[in-house]
Every structure is written in C-alpha cells, then in structure tokens.
Amino acid sequence: MDEMTAEQNTEQVTKDEIWENLKANLEALEKPRNLLLLGSLGTGKSSFINTVITALTGKYKYYADVGRGSSHNTMRLHMIPSAEYWNPENKEIKAQNLPTFIDIIGLETSLSESKEEISVNKELMRLIINGQLPQNCDLFDLSNKLKNREKINIKPDLQIAAVDIIIVVLSAENYVTPDILLYDICKEAKFETKNIPVFLVLTNVDKSNLSEKGLEEKKNDICSIMNIEPYKVLMCSNYQPDHKPSIKKDIKILEFLMKLSDPCFKAVTLQKMESEKPALSIEIMESEKPAPSVQEMECEIPAPLKPHASTPCQNADDSSVMTGAFICLLLAFLIGLILHFGSKI
C-alpha cells in the first residue's frame, strides 16, 4: 500500500510539473489556439476531445458529440472554446489561453480519390483551415455540394478564426492506413495557402491486437507517410464516461497538449511571389504562329499561253537576226587575229 502511495505521489509530482510547463506555454501565446481534428469516420476524434478536457478538469462530459457504428455522428463544424469547458474557481488560472477544439465530420477516404486536381476533402479542409465556414455549418450537406461541383458562396465578412494546429486522429484498431487521405491532409496543411503544424494521435491502443512493438512500427510507418517526427505523436486510449481518472493517462495527454501549445509551433501564411510571364520573342512568336489554312493559301493559277502560229514575215525576221549575229562574231575573230600577229612583228 505504501509502495502504491509513493508511486502515486511521484506521478502527481510529474503531472504538476507538466501542468506548470503547460501554463508557461499558454501564457506565452497571444491568444488561444484553434486545434482542428481531422480523420476518417470512427477514429475517435470527438472522444479524444472529451479525453483532453477530462485530463484538464478531472471530469468527463460530452463536450463533443460521440457516436458509434458506421454512420456520421458529428455533422457540423463544432467549435468548443475554453469558456465551455474551463471554469475553475481560481481567477488567475481562468485567464489561461487554453485551446479551442474544432470538431468536424469524419472524412471519407473515397472523397480523396478524385481525378480532379482538388478533391472534395481538400476543398472542405481548405475552407475550414482558412476560417471561411460559420459555426455549426452543415458539413454533410456541404460535402455533397462539393461532390456535385456546385459553387459555394463564401461570405466575405465572415469572422471565424483560422486553424493554428492540425491533429490527425487515427485508430490503432484499423489495419489499413488511409494513405491517400493522409496525403490530402498533409498537402493541404503544408503546401497550399498555409504551412500549419501537423500532429498525430493514435487512439484505441488498448483495443488493438498489435503488440507494443507492432504499435511502434505502425506509428513509425504513419510518420513516414505524413513526413512528421515521432515527437509529434501521441499513442493513447480515450476516456469513457465510466472510467476513473488516471494520473498516468493524464500525464501523457497533458504533455501532448503542452507540445500543441508551444509557441515555436505556429501556422504561417505562405507569401506567394508576384511574377509576370516573359514576353515572347519574334522567333518564338513566328514558330508558334499557326500554319496558314488552305483557304489562306488559295490563289488563281494563270491560264496557259496559247501557241501562236508562225507567219512568213516572222520567219524572215528570225533568219535576218541569225545572219547579223554570225557576221559580228566573224569580224571579232578577224580583228583578234590581226592584233595577235601585229604584236609579234
């Protein structure tokens, strides 16, 4: 019993130290961060939000909608600010910049499989990441409209905070890793309009059939796919309503939240350089000029000249010309001989 008490005391000291480090990170932030949770259906996104809040408050409540089975439970853009879950008696602690959690619909892997340059999932994520959707937006309806390639009217005066951190949630129970969905998430998070830090949560490790070594290999494989460091990964089991608080579990979760609140990790809006297309040179313009069409090359071919019949007068004139030319050549030859022999005398 004494050993158990000593272990619990040690764990409580560790938890208190992590909490102090977490508070230091929160105080260094200018404003609360918006944490967007992404993942496919049934990976435990909503349960993880409730788990983090339980680790903070010591009480489990359904702050995020939790469901079971193969149908969507979270259908809307659900933002959970700290005012909804954090209300301690100590006013100093109340001022902490605890995060706002953004819970959304489970992303369908099939909506990442598109021949179009931008898949439905990428369009949906882009709207959420840039803060262009209102609170409680019907994401199921929006996904169907994007699938049908309908034009979405964005309100320019919409004042919704943009995403600061992305947390990808996967279940350790799932044997198949949704590579194409992870590719869409990472590309949209890092290379499009912003560069947003991406973290990974592997839930349901207590329900997985994998060994500890197998879980570690799965984690490393996913890190390779997402191109993130293992440092940004949390492997955990979610709290359930009937679970008693666990200091060990709280330590892992609060330590992960401390990383999410680190001022070093922040979203950056990518500044695209302005440019002008080079003017085409004359040679390039001539080479790119399309060949004239058949109509442009059409022309009239002159009719062939008709032969004229020769007359006696014309024949006489021709013979006179030939005779005159012969006499001139003969005179030139004689003059040449005289000059040649005269020079020798």
Features:
alpha/beta; Rossmann fold; 11 helices; 8 strands; elongated
Task: Give the structure's gist in a few sentences.
It comes from Magallana gigas. InterPro entries: P-loop_NTPase. The chain has eleven helices and eight strands.
Which class of secondary structure composition applies to the elements? alpha/beta
State the helical fraction: 40-55%
**Rounded Rg:** 42 Å
Uncertain runs are: 293-299, 307-313
SSE pattern: HEHEHHEHHEHEEHEHEHH
Using the coordinates above, name the CATH class of one domain: Alpha Beta
What is the general shape?
elongated
CATH topology of one domain: Rossmann fold
Q: DSSP helix count?
A: 11
Architecture overview:
The protein is α/β, with parallel strands linked by helices and 345 residues long. Among the domains are: 68-163, no CATH class; 167-265, Rossmann fold. Helices cover 43% and strands 9% of the residues. It is built from 11 helices and 8 strands. The strands form 2 sheets. Strands 2-3-1-4-6-7 form a 6-stranded mixed sheet, with helices on both faces. Helix 2 packs across helix 9 (247-260), helix 5 packs across helix 6 (139-147) and helix 5 runs parallel beside helix 7 (179-190).
